[in-house]
Design a protein that fits this description.
The complex is a heterodimer of chains A (170) and B (162). By secondary structure, chain A is α/β, with parallel strands linked by helices. Chain A is 18% helix and 28% strand. Chain A contains 3 helices and 7 strands, in the order H-E-E-H-E-E-E-E-H-E. The longest helix of chain A has 12 residues. Chain B is α/β, with parallel strands linked by helices and 162 residues long. Chain B is 35% helix and 11% strand. Chain B has a 4-stranded parallel sheet. The relative contact order of chain B is 0.18. Classes of the chains: A alpha/beta (170), B alpha/beta (162).
Chain lengths: 170, 162
């Protein structure tokens, strides 16, 4: 796919103010956007008349701590169009202060667990998510360990986890 | 032994503990707690090429209530440790524990926020097997070490504090 593809052009015309950049690298197009109207933008890509991105192959996040990026976090959507056999990457930048973005669970059902994983490990809250619980770490875990400022050896979780205790019959 | 000559064919003179330990040591029923690549080596040890049944402990029990040897083979995370403790408590006495591989024994290369740095902090380990992962021969050696420990047990021993 090229960055001059009609679907990208249409997208740029409709959401010009929201787009931060459109990059093409080795035949892969990545559109960076602001998080505010992400739901509207992703819905437009999913329901595009000529190139509908009907599959969400992956949803993840990146922590750009101390790197030169518009905001600290980016939620990355990897989209795929079965009709056109094309792929598109959308990066929605989320600030550390307002660490939330609209859930795309209503657009692609597989976003459910992927968003739970991003919430668990990066602490980005997904608004209107049907079931935003931790998915990998224990339920009572505090903190989001894939953030770049999280200490590798943790904050004492290795010794302060709830242990199974034997209840002796009295 | 001279005593059998006096007693005839139908009797055998021995200590009860020697007989019991002989039976226990050569019929260890392992509870496999395989969570990572060490479990693959454990499966290889159990199957025909290395054949752990030569040492009497091929009867893998997936119910802890029927097992007397816990083989912890693999990484144990803080989410998995309560499960391991529960299964360990469900195993009836007498019971023994092998910590197989670097991860179970010390956390291995995973010195991270989520990994237990050695299961011996929480359950009593009898034999540690080094390696990443250990070869089947190492696991067989570990089982032989357990058999040595079993052979020195006394009937009056109450193990692991219960």
């Amino acid at each position: 796919m090229k960055s001059t593809d009609p679907v990208v052009t249409r997208f740029k015309e409709r959401f010009g103010d929201e787009i931060l950049s459109v990059e093409e690298f080795r035949g892969q197009v990545a559109i960076s956007v602001k998080a505010g109207r992400s739901m509207e933008m992703l819905r437009a890509l999913r329901d595009d008349a000529e190139c509908p991105f009907d599959v969400l192959t992956d949803l993840t996040a990146v922590d750009y701590l101390r790197l030169d990026h518009p905001e600290r976090f980016a939620v990355v959507y990897q989209l795929y169009s079965l009709l056109r056999n094309e792929r598109l990457r959308v990066k929605a930048y989320v600030s550390e202060a307002r660490c939330e973005i609209e859930s795309v669970n209503a657009l692609w059902a597989d976003a459910n667990w992927l968003e739970r994983e991003v919430w668990d490990l990066y602490g980005i809250r997904f608004l209107n998510h049907p079931d935003l619980r931790r998915i990998l770490m224990p339920d009572n875990y505090t903190g989001h360990p894939l953030r770049k400022d999280y200490p590798l050896k943790g904050r004492g979780e290795r010794s302060n986890f709830p242990k199974y205790t034997v209840e002796e019959p009295s | 032994m001279g005593l059998e000559k006096l007693l005839g064919d139908g009797a055998l003179a021995t200590r009860v503990s020697a007989l019991v330990n002989w039976a226990r040591g050569n019929a260890l029923w392992p509870m496999p707690f395989g969570t990572a690549c060490c479990a693959i080596e454990m499966m290889a040890t159990l199957s025909s090429r290395f054949d752990m049944s030569r040492f009497g402990s091929e009867v893998i029990r997936f119910s802890p209530r029927q097992a007397d040897l816990m083989i912890v083979s693999g990484r144990i995370s803080i989410k998995m440790m309560p499960v391991l403790l529960k299964i360990w408590e469900q195993m009836p006495e007498p019971k023994w524990c092998i910590s197989m591989g670097a991860c179970a024994s010390s956390g291995g290369v995973f010195d991270t926020y989520t990994l237990i740095q050695g299961v011996d902090q929480f359950i009593p380990v009898d034999v540690y097997i080094p390696g990443c992962p250990p070869r089947p021969e190492n696991l067989i050696d570990g089982v032989r070490k357990i058999q040595e420990i079993v052979s020195k047990e006394k009937l009056s021993d109450t193990r692991h504090g219960s």
